[in-house]
Amino acid sequence: MTEVVSFRNVGVRYESGPEILRDLNFTLHRGSFHFLTGASGAGKSTLMRLLYLALRQTRGEINIFGRDNIRIPRDELPAIRRKIGVVFQDFRLINHLTTFENVALPLRVAGVEDLQIRKNVTELLEWVGLGDQINAVPSRLSGGQQQRVAIARAVIGRPALLLADEPTGNVDDRIAMRLLYLFEELNKLGTTVLIATHNRQLVRRFGHNQWLLEAGTLHDITHSA
Amino acid sequence: MAFRSQPSHLPLDSDSSTRFLPSIVALMVALLTFSIVGLAALHDSVGKWSGQIEGSLSIQVPPTGMADREPEEREQALQATVDDIIEQLADMPGISRIEELSPETMSALLEPWLGPDEIVSELPIPRIIEITPETGFNFDMLERRLGEIAPEAVLDDHRIWIERIADVAFSVELALMALIVVLFGATMLSVVFATRSGLSIHRTIIELLHLIGAQDSYIAGQFARHNLRLAFFGALIGLLIALPVSGVIAWLGMRAGWPIPTLVFSPLFIGIIIAIPFVVAGVAQMTAKRTVLRVLRRML
Ligand SMILES: Nc1ncnc2c1ncn2[C@@H]1O[C@H](COP(=O)(O)OP(=O)(O)OP(=O)(O)O)[C@@H](O)[C@H]1O
Ligand SMILES: [Mg+2]
Asked: Residue A122 C-alpha to ligand 1 middle, in angstroms?
C-alpha cells in the first residue's frame, strides 16, 4: 500500500507554549479509514492543521504525498492542497455566498468548467439533503445544514485525502450515519479518510481504525475499544 | 473558463467595505476635481492679466486750476507741462518710449462719449502721456520724479495694481498646485487604507481560498477586480458631484461678469479630468493586489 501521510517524531507547540503534540509516529495508507478521538483540547484540530498544511511542526518530519512538507515550494502548495478535502470544525463557510457557490468554490479555484460545476454541485447537494437550500446563504441555514455544506465543499473535488474535524457534531444520528456513508463511498473510491470526533457511539458502529490522542501522543485503540 | 477571462467568484459586494471605499474615493475625487477646475480658471485669468501688463503705462496731465482761462491759453500751458514731463523723463532708466497720445487718438477714444468734431480742443480735457517700460523700470522713482516736475500729473497705477493681483494669483496658483499634489496623494492613501481595512474584513475568506488550493494570483486577482470596480464607481460619483457644481459656479461667475476660463475646454484639461477615475481605480486595483499578496506570503 502507498503511504499518503507519514509522521516521524513530530512535535508541535504554539509559539512558546507547551508542546501540544509530541512524538507522533504514524502512517496513513492509501484508501485507509481512521477515526481520531480524544478529549477536548487533546490536539485533534492541531493534528488536522498539520495535515492540511496550515501549520508546521516544531520538530520531526512529515511526509505528505511523497513530499517533505517543509520543503514544498510555495507555488506548489495549491496543487497539493487541492488533493486534500477539509471539513473545518468551525465550517468556515463564506457568509455572503449561497450554498451552491460555497460548495462550488474548490472547483472554481481549480478552474473547472461552469457546466461541470453546475452538474456536480447540484448532484452532491441533493445527496446530502440540501437540494432545497441551493440558493440560501449560510445565515439562513441551521447548524446541521451548515455542517453539511462544509462537508459537501470538502468532498466536491474528490480529494485523495479527506480530513473531517468533528463533521457530525451538529446533526442527528440519522444524518450523521448518512454523512458517514458518504465518507465510506469516497473511501471505496480510494480516498484516504481521517475523521476527528467525540462521538464514540458512531465510531463503534462503523468499526474502522480508531486512534486516541492522549497526553499529546497518539495511541492505536482499534482493537482495545 | 474559456469564454470568460477571469470571472468573479466572490460576490464581495455585500459587505461594509463596499460602502466605505467608494464614498471615501468619491469625496477625495470631488475635492481633487474642484482644485483642478479652480487651478485652470485661475491660471487662465492670470494669463489674461499678464497680457494686459505687457501694455503701456500712462500719465494724465489734468488742466487743474485752469478752468477760468481762455481755451487757447489753457492748452498752451498744458502743452508746456506735457513737453516738460516728456523731456525730463525721456532719459530715465527703464523707459523705452515716452510720447504724448496724439489728439487724433484722443478724439477717437472720446468719440463714444463726446461725439465727433473738434470739440476735444474746446474742452478742458486732460492730456495723456504713454510710457512703455522696459527692464530696470522703477515705478516709485517715476512717481517721485513726476511729483517734482508736475505735482498735478497723475500716474495711472492700473498696471501696478494688475501686477500685484497677478503676483498674488500666481502664489495662489502655486498653492493650488501643491494642494492638488497633496490631494492626489491623500486620495491614493485613502484608497490604500480603505483597501487594507476592506481586506481585513475578508481575511478569513483569503485564508479559506488559500486552504482549498487557490493560487495566490487567483486570490489577489479576485480582490483586485473587486477594488477596481469599487474605486472606479466611487471616482465617477465624485466627478458627477464635482463637475455640475463647478458648472454652477462658472454660471454664477458668468452672470457676475467673469469670463469662462478657456483652459477648461483644452484637451489637456479634459484629458486630466477623464483620467482621474481610471488612475484612481488603477491604484485601487494595484493596492488590493499587493496587499493580498503580502497577507498571503505570511500564510503557510
Ligand atoms: N492558535 C493557537 N494558539 C495557541 N494555542 C492553541 C491554538 N490552537 C489551539 N491551541 C491549544 O492547543 C491545544 C489543542 O487544541 P486543539 O484545538 O487541537 O484541540 P482539540 O482536540 O481539537 O479540541 P476540541 O475537541 O475541543 O476541538 C489546546 O490546549 C489549545 O488551547
Ligand atoms: Mg478541535
From this structure: 35
Q: Residue A92, by phi and psi: left (phi above 0), alpha (psi -120 to 50) or beta?
A: left
The Cα B150–Cα B84 span in angstroms is 9
Q: Are B214 and B205 in contact (CB under 8 A)?
A: no
Residue identifier of the C-alpha nearest atom 7 of ligand 1? A14
Q: Which three cell numbers stand for residue B248?
A: 454652477
Please report, for chain A, the start and end positions of each structural domain, with discontinuous segments joined by +.
1-83+159-225, 93-156
Residue B200, min C-alpha distance to chain A (Å): 14
Q: How far is residue B18's CA from residue B14's CA, in Å, rounded to a whole number?
A: 7
Parse chain B into domains and list their residue ranges.
13-51+162-296, 57-157
DSSP letter for B13, please.
G
Give the A:B interface size as CB pairs under 8 Å.
60
For residue B19, which residues of chain A lie inside 8 Å, CB to CB? none
Whether residue B231 contacts residue B22, with contact meaning beta carbons closer than 8 Å, is answered with yes
Closest A-chain CA to B205: A94
> Counting atoms of ligand 1 from 1, which one is nearest the CA of A48?
18
- Find the CB nearest A78 among B14, B204, B215: B215
- Structurally, at CATH architecture level, domain B57-157 sits in 2-Layer Sandwich (3.30)
Rounded Cα gap, residues B128 and B89, in angstroms: 14
B139-167 tens-digit pLDDT: 788 888 888 888 888 887 666 666 777 77
Q: Which helix (H) or strand (E) segment is B55 a member of? A: none
Instruction: From the options 3.40.50.300, 3.20.20.70, 3.10.100.10, 2.40.40.20, give the CATH code of A1-83+159-225.
Output: 3.40.50.300
Q: pLDDT tens, A132-178?
A: 999 999 999 998 899 999 999 999 999 999 999 998 887 888 888 88
Report the alpha-carbon distance of residue A148 to residue A181 in Å, rounded. Answer: 13
ipTM, two decimals, is 0.89
